[in-house]
Amino acid sequence: MTSTFPRLMLDHATRRPTAPALRVKEYGIWQTTTWADLADLVRRMACGFSQAGMARDDHVVVVGDNRPRLYAAMLAVQSLGAVPVPLYQDAVSAEFVFPINNADVRFAVVEDQEQVDKMLEIREKCPQIARIWYDDPRGLRSYAEAGLEPLDTLLATGQAAHAARPGFFDEQVAQVQPRDVAAMFFTSGTTGNPKGVVHTHFTLLDRATAGARFDKLTEKEEVLAYLPPAWIGQNIFSYAQWLSCGYVVNCPESAATVTIDLKEIGPTYYFAPPRIFEGLLTSVMIRMEDASTIKKWLFQRFMDVARRVGPARMDGKPLGLVDSVTYALGNLCIYGPLRNTLGFSRVRVAYTAGEAIGPDLFTFYRSIGVNLKQLYGSTETAVFVCLQPDNEAKADTVGVPIDGVEIKLAPNGELLVKSPGLLKEYYKNPAATAEVLTEDGWYHTGDAGFLDAGGHLKIIDRAKDVGRIVGGPNDGAMFAPKYVENKLKFFPFIKEAVAFGDKREKVCAFVNIDFEAVGNWAERRNLPYAGYTDLAAKPEVLAMIKECVEKVNADLAQDKLLTGSQISRFLVLHKELDADDGEMTRTRKVKRGFINDKYQVLVDAMYGGKTEQFIETAVKFEDGRSGSVSATLSIIDAKTFASVQKAA
Question: What's the pTM?
Answer without folding.
Answer: 0.82
